[in-house]
Amino acid sequence: MTIKKDSLIKRIVYMAIMYFIGPLPLSFVLIMSYKKNIVTLIALTVAWVLANAAVIYIAYRLVCRYTQKPILQKANLSDLLYVFGGYATILISNGILTFLNHAIYNRVQSPNNLAIEKSLLNHHQLMVAVLIINLIVVTPIVEELIYRGMAFNLFFNSNQVWLKILLSAVLFSSAHQSNTIFSFLTYAFIGIILGFVYWKSGKLQNSMALHALTNLVAVLAILL
């Protein structure tokens, strides 16, 4: 089924539903910080796995419905260039915006990053392990399916690429906690770069890989 067979209202509803349910599985991880009983912790971990599986399945089906092509495609050398070139661009944009955020607002990290850092450093091993997997594996899959796969293919025409990129970037940034314009722009620029990589390569797996690489380095920086 193509995009023309669904009304704009229906596409907006799809997007709104996934925007709000996408982060919900993480709540099971956050609840872990208040629990010590091993049975409860295992039950929360199972709930986290099942909730993420449901979200990924729904988002995957919607993306396939509107793109009518597989999510995973044959990789080649150019894909590595997109991923590592995109990461280098993210480092540059993050550096500039972090500098401006510190110079103007005297803040270095966003509330989102501070919350992640606190969770990784101040909780028990099971919660930390699940959170690391969530950040490095699950989040890139879920967020790329929703903010690139869906936002790109549910809205605007094929010749309105930059509107697609900007929409996906704004939605992506709004889903992360920000307390200054520069912290919001930091996530927005990451969203723009992820969107650009998806558009130019035509492969959602590349924006997923770039997203995973970005999160991996951030997690390692906190832990090490």
Features:
mainly alpha; 9 helices; globular; single chain; 224 residues
Describe the overall structure.
The radius of gyration is 18 Å and the shape is globular. The protein has one domain. Helix 6 (125-154) runs antiparallel to helix 7 (161-174), helix 6 crosses helix 8 (181-201) and helix 8 packs across helix 9 (204-223). It has 9 helices and no strands. With 224 residues, the protein is mostly helical.
Short description:
This protein has 224 residues and is mostly helical. The protein is built from 9 helices and no strands. The protein starts with 7 loop residues before the first helix and ends with a helix.
The biggest beta sheet reads: none
Computed over alpha carbons, the radius of gyration is 18 Å
Find the count of extended strands (DSSP E, 2+ residues).
0
Classify the helix fraction into a percent range: over 70%
Structural class: mainly alpha
Mean pLDDT: 93
DSSP strand (E) fraction?
under 5%
H/E element string?
HHHHHHHHH
The backbone outline, from C-alpha atoms, is: globular
Low-confidence stretches: none
End-to-end CA span: 48 Å
The number of domains: 1
Helix segment tally: 9
Pfam families: Rce1-like
Domain CAAX prenyl protease 2/Lysostaphin resistance protein A-like: 128-217
Transmembrane segments: 12-32, 38-60, 80-104, 124-142, 154-175, 181-199
Keywords: Membrane, Transmembrane, Transmembrane helix
